[in-house]
């Protein structure tokens, strides 16, 4: 069986591909609220089993299991292995006003398939699964291993993919089939953090005069007022970054520090003894989230040094987290791509074969789980159907012809990657 014959089969079996996308859309795996992916994940696990994968399934959170399938190659020591990664959760449908149909009852209309998750990213999951299905149906046994990861929680910064990496899943290359409009992409990163200012003493409101006026004699401060100083400091750092940092593929000033949420004070009868600021920091692909966190800390500690009260009551930092829902924190490591590497080269070739044009290679304007795989030392890229305008949007949709093209590219790429010897890397 030639690859060309296999590719015609994608066209011949187009309706089956669409049925698979629709089946996935019908599982309402919204996140938040999350904890609702069990059925969808069992469905994927069953599909993978039919193709010959062995399944590793575990709860990351109750009712939110990860599914990792492994399809053993015939000569896994000799031929390249591949990880295909995607998330099963979809963005919340806050209200379905404006949707022309139920977001979880997909319809095909005017060459597009509509429904929550079509673009982000059940279309990608379905296309990759379907490519593997066709290989199996045509009796093709791959020489290298294929690992299929269907993870939870990506929409709320949960550690689905991180747990796959922590479990030790590795490969010679990884593709995150998330929304990229068939461009090959890396990404910048995001880390959230809490900055807390805390006074060791709680003062009654009546003592404010003593605290702030000449001769008052009381060494104390309002945590809220001191936080204003740190927010100003963050703005200065953000501006400094905007001027001094850049990365090809991004507009200037992408490295932002957003003071997103502020909480503080206990009651109008007291001077605020605690203030907490929740910040979101974006950084470039050549930067690491731990270094960025340290840059912010160092700067705020310098700002604090220049203040007579903060100097002795410096802010406390808590960075990242494994879930925006559970611990109000998240990390998306950045992802650098190696344009000369085998992964980009082979995928470019597969894409060009199908679309008769070279793919764009660049940077995603959003974040995906790709950063975790990259951080685990696996050459990784983002490549999937659907565009970001559609991700998370009302009447989310993906073009059917793009979905078909994606499936063909994946079929070609998986086949060729798996038939490439490791030492050729
Ligand atoms: Zn996504």
Automatic annotation (TrEMBL):
Essential cofactor(s)? Co(2+); Zn(2+)
The Enzyme Commission number assigned here is: 3.5.1.16
InterPro entries attached to this UniProt entry: ArgE/DapE, Bact_exopeptidase_dim_dom, Peptidase_M20, Peptidase_M20_dimer, Peptidase_M20A
Q: Which UniProt keywords apply?
A: Cobalt, Hydrolase, Metal-binding, Zinc
Domain (Peptidase M20 dimerisation) ranges: 211-304
Gene Ontology MF annotations: acetylornithine deacetylase activity; metal ion binding
Q: Which Gene3D superfamilies match?
A: 3.30.70.360, Zn peptidases
Which family, according to UniProt? Belongs to the peptidase M20A family.
Q: What is this protein called?
A: Acetylornithine deacetylase
């Amino acid at each position: 069986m030639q690859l060309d014959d296999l590719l015609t089969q994608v066209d011949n079996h187009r309706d089956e591909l669409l049925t698979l996308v629709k089946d996935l859309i019908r599982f309402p795996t919204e996140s938040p609220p999350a904890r609702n992916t069990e059925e969808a994940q069992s469905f994927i696990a069953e599909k993978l089993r039919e193709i010959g994968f062995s399944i590793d399934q575990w709860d990351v959170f109750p009712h939110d299991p990860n599914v990792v399938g492994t399809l053993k190659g015939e000569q896994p020591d000799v031929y390249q292995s591949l990880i295909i990664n995607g998330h099963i959760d979809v963005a919340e449908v806050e209200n379905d006003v404006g949707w022309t149909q139920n977001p979880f009852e997909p319809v095909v209309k005017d060459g597009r398939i509509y429904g929550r998750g079509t673009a982000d990213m059940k279309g990608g999951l379905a296309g990759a699964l379907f490519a593997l299905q066709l290989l199996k149906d045509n009796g093709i046994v791959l020489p290298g291993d294929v690992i299929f990861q269907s993870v939870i929680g990506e929409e709320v910064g949960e550690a689905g993919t991180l747990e796959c990496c922590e479990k030790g899943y590795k490969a010679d290359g990884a593709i995150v089939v998330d929304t990229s409009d068939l461009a090959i992409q890396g990404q910048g990163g995001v880390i959230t953090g809490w900055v807390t200012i805390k006074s060791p003493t709680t003062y009654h409101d009546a003592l404010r005069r003593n605290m702030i006026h000449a001769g008052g004699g009381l060494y104390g401060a309002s945590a809220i007022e001191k936080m204003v100083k740190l927010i100003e400091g963050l703005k200065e750092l953000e501006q400094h970054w905007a001027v001094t940092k850049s990365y090809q593929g991004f507009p200037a000033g992408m490295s932002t520090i957003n003071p997103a949420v502020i909480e503080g004070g206990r009651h109008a009868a007291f001077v605020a003894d605690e203030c907490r600021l929740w910040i979101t920091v974006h950084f470039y692909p050549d930067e690491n989230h731990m270094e960025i966190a340290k840059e912010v800390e160092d700067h705020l500690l310098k700002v604090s040094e220049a203040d007579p009260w903060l100097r002795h009551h410096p802010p406390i930092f808590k960075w990242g987290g494994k879930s925006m829902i559970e611990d109000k924190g998240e990390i998306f490591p950045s992802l650098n791509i190696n344009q000369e590497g085998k992964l980009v080269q082979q995928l470019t070739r597969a894409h060009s074969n199908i679309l008769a044009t070279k793919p764009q290679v660049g940077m995603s304007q959003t974040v995906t789980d790709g950063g975790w795989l990259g951080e685990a030392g696996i050459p990784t890229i983002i490549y999937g159907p659907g565009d970001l305008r559609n991700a998370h949007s009302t009447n989310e949709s993906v073009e059917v012809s793009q979905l078909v093209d994606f499936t063909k590219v994946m079929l070609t790429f998986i086949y060729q990657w798996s038939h490439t010897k490791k030492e050729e890397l």
